[in-house]
Amino acid sequence: MSHFHTLKVKDIRKETSQAVSIAFELPADLKNTFVFESGQYVTIKRIVNGEDIRRSYSICSTPFEEEIRIGVKKIDNGKMSGFLNNELKVGDTLEVMPPAGNFVAKNHTANIVGVAAGSGITPVFSLLKSVIKAGGKFTLFYGNVNEENTIFKQELEKLTTNHPANFKVHFTYDEGAAKQLDPIQCGRIDEQKMNDFIKLNLEILKADGFYICGPEAMINTVNETFKKMGVADEKIHFELFTTPVKKADSLEQTAPDSSYEGTSHVTVIMDGEEFEFDLNSKGATILDTAIEQGADAPFSCKGAVCCTCKAQIIEGKATMEMNYALSDEEVAEGFILTCQAHPASDKLVIDYDVI
Ligand code: FES
User: Fold this and answer.
1) Residue 253's closest CA among 326, 352, 348, 342?
2) Entry pTM
3) For the chain, percent of residues with pLDDT exceeding 90
4) Domains in the chain and their CATH numbers?
5) Is the per-residue pLDDT at 281 higher than 70?
6) Does any ligand 1 atom lie closer than 6 A to the CB of residue 341?
7) CA torsion sign, 148 to 149 to 155 to 159?
8) Residue-wise pLDDT tens digits, 55-110
């Protein structure tokens, strides 16, 4: 099972007035533990006023840069993002969980389209650098409020200059019209905007993979737009940055046998220890109950988004309220998000140690 490790902050870079990137020092004995793929994230833990706060942040560096660096945009009233932006100093330590996440590309020599809004650029920035480095093609559509708040803007422009055959970026700005920019650069990334871009270059639709990252509404809109244009479902990948406000039918998955009603005997295996308890199918989640029973079960978003609470069913069945993080293959292999899971058989055994 993944545990938190204490890492020292090596560097903090101000990316915009509202965002920093933070690089960690990796001791030799943790190098293998923190091996990552472009598109993954880490979860950070901090106790604030006695409250256990956990947040997941995408890695913006790439494996070939030999650095693990995350991007953090300051959120209004965000306890963790406010601390990381305003108070954290080089030399401080943070509790960090090893990289995780499925927002990765199997083939970096492919032709990829990325769509990002705001800090949704963070994992996409890592992905596109890996694709360019491997000789693939990357076309990015990137929406922001204005140019000043566009994270990695200069680096992206430099990449287009240095790799014109491999990388193209199209910026859009909410405040574009006020600044009299070209109409295609004005406004949010929505269905109309994506249609406008596609009309200008139909080749976009022939990409091998589509990677969308940003707020839920933008992801749903862009996902639907690509699908309406004939892009196959399995080519579209997305990463939610916020806990969803509602269940999106297209994203929801429900495990089989959700009609089960009753009390199940649950065994949770963690760190080689077993925690046993009875849990009703309509009761609390497996994660919350396991923690109540003394298990140091991992979690971050508790919103079906981050995947930190993943475990595997060894015996029995479970249902999930929502799933925005596990792939179909993982669900088929018996993986569950324990923050969303309820028992669906008289006996259930789940294992956190297999992760
Ligand atoms: S804690 Fe994030 S998906 Fe369960």
Assistant:
1) 326
2) 0.84
3) 77
4) 5-96 (2.40.30.10), 111-240 (3.40.50.80), 263-351 (3.10.20.30)
5) yes
6) no
7) negative
8) 899 999 999 998 999 999 998 888 899 999 999 999 999 999 999 888 999 899 99
14 closest CA partner among 86, 80, 78: 86
Cα distance between residue 105 and residue 68, in whole Å: 18
Q: Is 6 exposed, middle or buried (0-12, 13-18, 19+ CB in 10 A)?
A: exposed
Structure-block tokens of residue 169: 């970026």
Q: What is the dihedral sign for C-alpha 295, 301, 304, 309?
A: negative
Instruction: Find the distance separating the first CA and the last CA of the chain, reported in whole Å.
Output: 5
In 3D, which of 117, 334, 354 has the Cα closest to residue 238?
A: 117
Residue type at position 84: L
Alpha-carbon distance values, 80 to 14, 44, 73 (Å): 16, 9, 10
Alpha-carbon distances, residue 344 vs 257, 279, 291, 307, 320 (angstroms): 7, 10, 20, 20, 10
Please say if the pLDDT value at position 182 is more than 70. Answer: yes
Cα of 167 to ligand 1 centre, how many Å? 33
Among 317, 307, 314, CA closest to 338 = 307
C-alpha dist (Å) from residue 318 to 1, 241, 268, 355? 20, 26, 13, 18
In the block, residue with structure tokens 């360019």: 132
Q: Is 223 in the pocket of ligand 1 (CB under 6 A)?
A: no
Q: Is 300 in the pocket of ligand 1 (CB under 6 A)?
A: yes
Atom of ligand 1 nearest to the CA of 301: 2
311, 350 Cβ separation under 8 angstroms: yes
Distance CA 200, CA 187 (A): 17
